[in-house]
Amino acid sequence: MNKLKIQKSFNYLIAILLVLLSIFPIVWLFLTSIKSTNEIYSWPVKIFPSQPTIQNYVNLFQMGSFGRYYLNSFIVSGSATILILITGTLAAYSFARIQFRGKRSLMMIVLALLLFPPVAVVPPLFLIFRNLNLINNYISLILGHTALYLPLAIWILMNYFRTLPKNIEDSALIDGCNTFQMIFKILLPMSLPGLIAAGLITFVFSWNEFLLSLVLLSKNEMRTVVVGISLYPGEYSFPWELISSAIVLAIIPIILLTLVFQKYIISGLTAGSTKY
């Protein structure tokens, strides 16, 4: 009994340490963002600001570009997520429920695409969109992010659909629903946890994506927030007060979405991983 208690206490201690290690960079960035420039570069280092200020956030928006970067990220990530969920749902349902020739081979291709490093697909995507005159166009980045993260959404949704009872779908078809009515009226409401999990994961990946966003959108007014933040450091200066403020604002949507939908994320991912 004592050995079991010691083991549980040790597990809790490790979990707490991992949580603290994960949270510390975010807390440090926030504390840095409300310090004055002198405090940031003072020695010895002060963890907590003596006079907290929001002037860094004011200066960030007064520069004029950050608000545009933020809007661009929402446009690209939101549009890519919607497109991925629509196409991914139909593809995942086909893999999960419909028998057709070459199904296993296509599933292996989807799995293989999950293993591709994004840097490997950037050059061909750039050449394709350049030939289509879509450089510095939202459409190119939305389609690029869709190509990058659609396989992941298909895999999550396919495994989730396989956990749902097929007799409900059969009953809907017998009652007169066609396949599309059955998917959108019966299957999708039942698949809400899986859809939210797939949608949030693809949104976060799209929001944080850097390389393709840098290559396809070179105009300043078209840049996403991640690319915009990377351009703040100058040749001889590193404005930590602006960078930390920008990063804090950039991660707020991700944190809020995770907190609001964490129940659906956990149930969607765990249900989708228990049955093939």
Structure description:
This protein is mainly alpha-helical. It has two domains: 1-53; 63-272, Orthogonal Bundle (MetI-like fold). It is built from 13 helices and no strands. It has helices at 2-33, 37-40, 55-62, 66-97, 103-114, 118-131, 138-161, 166-174, 179-190, 192-208, 211-216, 225-230, 240-272. The longest helix is centred in the last third of the chain and has 33 residues, at 240-272. It is globular. The model has no long low-confidence stretch (mean pLDDT 85).
Please render the helix and strand layout as text.
Elements: H1 2-33, H2 37-40, H3 55-62, H4 66-97, H5 103-114, H6 118-131, H7 138-161, H8 166-174, H9 179-190, H10 192-208, H11 211-216, H12 225-230, H13 240-272
What portion of residues is helical? Answer: over 70%
Q: Report the strand count.
A: 0
Please state the CA-atom Rg, rounded to the nearest Å: 23 Å
Give the tally of structural domains: 2
Which structural category fits the helices and strands? mainly alpha
Question: How many separate helices?
Answer: 13
The CA-CA distance between the termini, in Å, is: 38 Å
Task: Based on the coordinates given, report the CATH architecture of the largest domain.
Answer: Orthogonal Bundle
What's the rounded overall pLDDT mean?
85
SSE succession? HHHHHHHHHHHHH
The profile of the biggest β sheet is: none
Poorly predicted regions are none
In CATH, the topology of the largest domain is named MetI-like fold
Shape: globular
Membrane topology: Multi-pass membrane protein
Organism: Petrotoga halophila DSM 16923
Pfam families: BPD_transp_1
Protein name: ABC transmembrane type-1 domain-containing protein
